[in-house]
Recover the amino acids of this structure.
């Protein structure tokens, strides 16, 4: 049965889960932004090259 | 017939593969995590540790992934150093921040578990110290990477650093056997089978698989970004020459 009352350990447990969730969100956002940024840059530069040739 | 490493060493093939594999790994990670967390939060309290046992479902996967990511970093660095393959170097570079993230999580969640169980946030014990050294290797790798402008020199220097750091992995794993430690000994891979009740073991293994799938997804996304970055750099150089 699901019971989310952790008594005197509540602070430790939720802090551990909260920090883990935060790190996962940060890693995911940073990775997606990094990839999207360089994809855009590469495509723009390729378009400039094509326009010159 | 092309072997898997040869198949993935071609950037075009890698980009085609990772385009569908990254979201697939991501979705798998979410499904496994939801199932693992449900089973973890509905499991009974541990008779000794009480509810703090629930920290295990995120601490142990983070600790295992901190080592798994370093093994990936080491293999990619070896391939980059020996074969001078750009994609292997991109894979090594992309694994470092993810490994650092998992190691930081292992240290922080371990501390949050240790305080109520051991009565201290930190102790200079062999396991904790060797994991801290692992974290410092990740930081050193990233610092060295960003300190060198020459891509080839950075790849070589960082690969050597990464290979040196591999020495620390057996120390992390066997530290609890080699020295007296506050940290508990080997539990899942113990001789004679896991020393853990299935009600805890099943959600733990599901969470380990979820973390591995998440690492796989994020690693592929970061390698794709690194490939795009190198393509952009190459295009910029060509434009500057014309």
């Amino acid at each position: 049965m699901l019971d989310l009352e952790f008594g005197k350990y509540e602070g430790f447990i939720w802090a551990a889960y909260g920090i883990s969730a935060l790190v996962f969100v940060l890693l995911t956002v940073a990775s997606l932004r990094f990839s999207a940024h360089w994809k855009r840059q590469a495509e723009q530069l390729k378009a400039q090259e094509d326009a010159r040739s | 017939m092309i072997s898997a490493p040869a198949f993935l060493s071609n950037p075009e093939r890698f980009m085609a593969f990772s385009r569908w594999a990254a979201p697939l790994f991501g979705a798998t990670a979410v499904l496994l995590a939801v199932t693992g967390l449900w089973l973890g939060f509905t499991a009974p309290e541990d008779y000794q540790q009480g509810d703090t046992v629930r920290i295990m479902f995120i601490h142990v996967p983070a600790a295992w992934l901190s080592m798994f990511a370093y093994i990936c970093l080491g293999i990619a660095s070896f391939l980059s150093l020996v074969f001078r393959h750009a994609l292997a170097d991109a894979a090594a570079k992309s694994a470092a921040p993810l490994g650092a993230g998992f190691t930081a999580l292992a240290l922080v969640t371990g501390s949050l578990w240790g305080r109520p169980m051991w009565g201290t946030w930190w102790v200079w014990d062999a396991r904790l110290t060797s994991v801290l050294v692992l974290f410092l290797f990740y930081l050193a790798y990233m610092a060295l990477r960003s300190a060198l402008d020459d891509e080839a020199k950075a790849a070589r220097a960082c690969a050597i650093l990464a290979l040196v750091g591999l020495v620390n992995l057996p120390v992390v794993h066997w530290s609890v056997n080699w020295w007296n430690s506050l940290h508990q000994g080997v539990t899942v891979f113990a001789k004679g089978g896991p020393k853990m009740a299935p009600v805890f073991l099943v959600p733990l293994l599901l969470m380990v698989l979820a973390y591995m799938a998440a690492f796989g997804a994020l690693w592929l996304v970061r390698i794709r970004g690194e490939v795009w970055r190198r393509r952009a750099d190459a295009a910029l150089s060509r434009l500057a020459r014309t």
In short: The mean pLDDT of chain B is 92. Residues 22-181+197-241 of chain B form one domain. Chain B has one domain: 22-181+197-241.
